[in-house]
Amino acid sequence: MADIKEISKAVRLVSVPTDRFKTSKISICFALPLKEETVASNALLPYLLHHSCAKYPSMELINNHLAMLYGASIGASVLKAGESQIMRLSISAIDDRFSLDNESISAKCAQLLCDLIFEPNFENGTFSNADIEQEKRLMIERIDSEMDDKRAYALRKCEELMCADEPYGLSKYGTKEQVKKLTADDVFKAWQRMLKTAKIQINVIGNADLKKIEESFADNLKKIGREEPAVLSTKFIGKADKIKEKTEQMEIKQGKLVMGLRVDIKDAMEKYAELSVMNDVFGGGPYSRLFANVREKMSLCYYCSSRLVRQKGVIFIQSGIETENKEKAVKAILEQFEIMKKGEFSKEDFEASKKAIVDALNSYGDMPEDIDVWYTGQIIYDEIFSTKKAVEMINKVTVDEVTKAAQLVTLDTIFMLEGTGDSEEGE
Description:
The chain is α+β, with helices and mostly antiparallel strands. 43% of the residues lie in helices and 22% in strands. Helix 9 packs across helix 15 (399-406) and helix 10 packs antiparallel against helix 11.
């Protein structure tokens, strides 16, 4: 169970004290609204910051210091939650219980994170052009790698089409063109904006020195002159005016079909448990309607599953199909959803789905990294809930509630990546 403490305005410390693990993890997350004009500069920041700082101005010095911290490791990432962009830096290290001479490794790790974030390795008062150009090249490679994964590419294109006029349609990295145009001034302003206006959450998992960790972050935050925090919000659109369709062609053997659906809810927590079970019965595991019928019985696809994005109130159905089977696959998928809306699914499938979700939720406690992920995803919410609370909610769901949840869902977008060749690269 997490302990939550507000340490200043729009800054909270989420701690999960436990002696289950030999390692502990500390992360600091910054959440800002997804905007076309800032998405690329924001995305570059965590990767730029985690390589060096004023105190340790090279990767070699950083690595030497990490070695002194019993082989600690640093990570950087960018996430999208609803219509917010999350920049995260994290550090994993041996738990304080296993240090020599009662050394507080967690406090030193927290201080290193503060050094990286609040005291960057500046050149003439800003980030060096050489460092920025290197990170721009690496960011473009990340964007290209997403395009090389045809399944991920098709999903991204469906998101863009479905949410063309909404922030959710933006990539968490921005576009290659936006990255290429970034200057040192753009990145410096993004760094200042992140520190001054982002909603901040510090996660601490393990047996750590919370007092010293809180002091490190609180002292540094006092120095930066925090401003009015950015407002994090997501627009929920209950139903599309019309169904959007688009087709692209690529030299791949297996076509990729992605269908985007809208859920008529007003916020991410409305009918959280009912929608989670409904989506799993429909397109979750091997017991699901999509797997058992569209894939196995009808042999219309190589894979077929659905994913609920509750932070935005949308569902994406992804399938790999022969291009000539597109219309049959769309028809079969929609027929299975009509079955969900009528409640004509078996009690056995319903119970199997609930059990699978509960097992997955319980598994979040198996590793510090998974616990960190669970709470990071909740930075955009005013209130945080535990996996234990989520399990209680799932266990209470009834068949009738799942049927009614399915009736809130309507088709919005169909995107098809047609295969025109024999290449299987990235499929």
